[in-house]
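Repro case for the chain-ordering regression, as requested:
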Amino acid sequence: MLNKIYSSPAEAVADIFDGATILISGFGEAGSPIELIHALIDHGAKNLTIVSNNTGSGHVGLAALIENKQVKKVICSFPKTANSVVFPELYKKGEIELELVPQGTLAERIRCGGAGIPAFYTPTAVGTVLEEGKEKRIFNGKEYLLEHAIKGDFALVKCLKADRYGNLVYNKTARNFGPIMCMAAKTTIVQAKQVVQLGEIDPEIVVTPGIFVQRVVEVPNPMEESILVAENRRYPWN
Amino acid sequence: MELKVKGWDINFVAKKIADDIPDGSYVNLGIGIPELVANHIPEGKEIIFHTENGLLGMGPSPEPSKADPELINAGKKCVTAIPGACYFHHADSFAMIRGGHIDYCVLGAFQVSQEGDLANWSTGEPNAIPAVGGAMDLVAGVKNIFVITQHVTKTGEPKIVKKCTYPLTGKNVVNKIYTNFAVMEVFDKKIFVKELAPDVTPEFLQSVTDAELHF
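-- result from build under test --
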């Protein structure tokens, strides 16, 4: 029987190892798998490379993972948001590495990682400081940069509904990086607001086909990062 | 330096852009001043707004009681979805941008050069946290790049320059510049002034512009 359902976030992240590369979904708080991230903080794996669009807000979720000194490097497009305090401080002290990637290049590198394409050419960032060190090639008279695919050892992704095969649907703009991150990781771990029976998700509207997902945990009432930040909460809980 | 000449109000500049974008266009607005353009779309004109975090058919801000933290724009503010809207993932969203499917993008600027280079993502200060977001993808892929900006900085320095001193977002990418003083087109690596605000003369405009202007 094919059953990808795990009983808890802790069980689902138990084998994440030191030095792993982890893709974490979300655009700001929308789509950020906060319960899975907190389970990873409890678990304690270190020297992680995190691929995510931002670096979290306040002292919960992704920001708390970074604050807990579990992250050696982030690969991201926009490492600051209105309430990000943790990453900027560590970065200024030289205690965390940053690979800054234009957002579309980040998305395409992840997509290619999932699609078996090792690298691709793009005009994004030609003529800017972000072209440094990259191979350049001219197609039809126009310059392009070579960009390499990103693959994860794990992906942590949030969705709305999942079934035990791992078929997923998302909620509005919380979809963002989820579908491509599911494709690009060896082990994709998903927190779903609701786990439903097989067949309850219309095959016509499945967004992530189950083959890209290895583990599903039901988290019926996920916390909202902005509320936790407004209440000045910290993880581990203060 | 406080300038006596004020030119147009920035909302009026945003309205000019809204008037210039054709009916039926797909448009991406940058964060901040460019968002004003959405407030001025003329009655009867249908513009579909794209936000790069995965929504085509973005509508205005919701009433606070209806705000959904999972329905946001690229500035991470709560928005709405119009009837006919659709959601998609990030690779599809940037395929729309990089694949040349979005018709217009309106962006702010620190500097624009006379060759159409744009600097709008970093002041290059050594202590700043570098953050690029989707700006480089937008200028590389969208068919028409419009810039909306005050003509000079708060301290009176020209923003329309011969050569950008801030780190570039893209080279030779800007098509049109809308400021409080003038509307300008970039063509063949030259800036052509198309319209002046009522209290602006060509001599005054050139005096607050580092780039060479063609009238």
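Ordering looks correct now. The mean pLDDT of chain B is 96.
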